[in-house]
Amino acid sequence: MTEIDAILAKSHLSRADIIGLLSARESECDSLFRRSADIKKEWAGNTVYLRGLIEYSNYCSKNCLYCGIRSGNARYARYEMTDDEVLEAARYAWENRFASIVIQSGERSDERFAAKIEQLIRSIQAMARGELHITLSLGEQTQETYRRWLEAGAHRYLLRIEVSNPDLYRRLHPDEGGHSHRSRLDALKSLRKTGYQVGTGVMIGLPFQTIPDLADDLIFFRDIDVDMVGMGPYIEHQDTPLYQYRNEIASPQERLFLSLKMVAVLRILMKDINIAATTAMQAIDPLGREKALRAGANVIMPNLTPEKYRQDYLLYENKPCLDEEAETFKSRLEDRIAEAGGSIGYGEWGDSRHFHRRK
Ligand code: SAM
Ligand code: SF4
Predict the structure, then answer these.
(1) What is the pLDDT of residues 174-216, one digit of tens each?
(2) How close is the Cα of 314 to the center of ligand 2, in Å?
């Protein structure tokens, strides 16, 4: 029996076991990926759920040291989609039976923004007769704002912790302007209390990050009993302060492989949650998301942002689908998901089973 098989035979994985799995070489990982695929099939099914991604605006009040749309980067023209553009993207998702959308944007906490999002959620729900599930990914907000948006018709919220280690978090964010690990944790608690299906996640392969850090990230997801996770490789961006460490991190392929192991181990640890196959995986490998589906992910987020804005929402370099038409994207996606052994859950909300089991 290999060391990996011995770990997989255990009913409870310790921190040391998780570190062992995350450290496994490619040649040792067959049984890990087989186990995570079996667990996914039994607990989450082989259906892949679609979330149409709308990158609403790249205005951001924050300055995270890794992110291309940080406030300190003057290279991008700042935009905000019009109401009509948002409704058109949501209509595309609804008419094509995606059943679910994600509205994502840079972080802003002004009243105009809160009111605009509230109104957009109401307009989308009216247009789609309440048939679209809405996920928000709009950063840290007050509990009152979270409540407003939930009451307007949002259902789920994605707020990545980015890294669960507070010391590492400090090194990746400026020491000013509300970049605080504590307040991010509080925001996650506040989202749970407000009644959202809560998602979080991390970046993988960051400068200064270690395998034990990543094991702690997985344990963090388990401890806070999260409903959904979106995590993927960190990808450098030349207009960010973190770019100076680009030669000190693992290769893109290694970061992708580590991300696939993170997905597989998480599926074993949290059998019935939703796990996204993220765009950053596709940025490294055109088949990166399909590999993530095989490793245990069950959600894909096709980009529905109007093409004219995509050049200005570059969180990292080589972000894919910059000029892809939604239609060609859809037919290619269907083929690829079928190749990965799944089928698309058209018209299905694909709520986290974990969320409903907890209730
Ligand atoms: N502004 C909101 C927030 O930060 O929660 C939501 C949008 S933000 C662009 C979404 C995610 O992009 C972040 O949580 C972060 O993990 C990811 N991201 C930013 N820069 C990245 C990079 N260079 N590589 C990979 N992911 C990145
Ligand atoms: Fe803004 Fe989010 Fe990027 Fe940080 S990760 S700079 S909050 S968009």
Answers:
(1) 998 889 999 999 999 999 999 999 999 999 999 999 999 999 9
(2) 11
